[in-house]
């Protein structure tokens, strides 16, 4: 059964329900399926009437619930979800609906904060107000299915039912096919350099509703507030703030240009046997051999897009001779200890990622020194579960080595945690604290543990 047939089948099933009996998520799902099917069936079709769908009650309510689930920090207005709940969600959404309907809605400035990067640097993160997040999420609900119909299968980042796990499996498949020459590319400040004029050209391939395009322009040109100072604004011609709800979708829409070029079945790169795998602004090229001329073409296309590859951080490697990292994983061609002269592709969290989870656990334990055992477990489990869910790759068992190392660290660290108190000894002083926390309080046991990831995560 084709994708279109499956979508049509789901549309028929949802449409069989009376509208008054459908929940807001079901109504949103039906709308998205119809938009996706239209875009998939007619590759050159342009959508002229989309803006009116932004302020449908079920769209705004679904958008609000999605934002609340993520429970991010407040923006420049300092308004939290608790404030909105106290004010009244219905009243809040009706006011936003009226602003969108009358086209009096104006986004507020984005608060910029700096978060630590793995390499020791800082990454700028933009935090819109909750009202702006809800409006952007409503826009994403409408736009995403249209562009999903066009996106290339080589793209895995910030897309429904796609993840880093899928990208890792695709890399593994290519390595097994002999595509062991890898170009690991690093785009320089991609989110800050997306040119607005060229992005709008790409958006107009599908969207002809000037009201929606104007709304997107407003989000792109909104001022940035950092340390109380305003920067950027209407004169800004490039960039989309990291942290904005709509930003990952816009980033994917623009990078889809490169996806189409490299993975075009009749194009130059496919004839050279080159395949690209991309996750947001991170991508690698894989082939049996990659000529310098092919890399020059990639640089040329990106330059025409207004983007730049960081040459110092990008590298061309032979995967059979040296390891390479991608999305927090390390890929190595290792000798087998079971088969004489045998080798296999080892895929595991890179050392920095393993060190980072240990540091995170250590910092957390230092901040909860006097918590009771159930609270200690409640604080640690989300950290352990999140890290394992990211690195637990279906049909890739080598990550179990990293999970075993994490468990050994937890055993040693929990023993020190409970033995360090000399004045007020814990009930687990001198005991096997890790085992007790696992067996009696439900602490996650990393090694040889299954069922952390939902069943449908890889569909």
TrEMBL record:
Keywords: Nucleotidyltransferase, RNA-directed DNA polymerase, Transferase. This is Group II intron reverse transcriptase/maturase. Residues 96-331 form the Reverse transcriptase domain. It comes from the Bacteria. It is an enzyme of class 2 (transferase). InterPro entries: DNA/RNA_pol_sf (IPR043502), Group_II_RT_mat (IPR030931), GrpII_Intron_Splice-Mob/Def (IPR051083), Mat_intron_G2 (IPR013597), Rev_trsase/Diguanyl_cyclase (IPR043128), RT_dom (IPR000477). GO terms for molecular function: RNA-directed DNA polymerase activity. Belongs to the bacterial reverse transcriptase family. Pfam families: GIIM, RVT_1. The keyword Glycosyltransferase does not apply. Its EC number is 2.7.7.49.
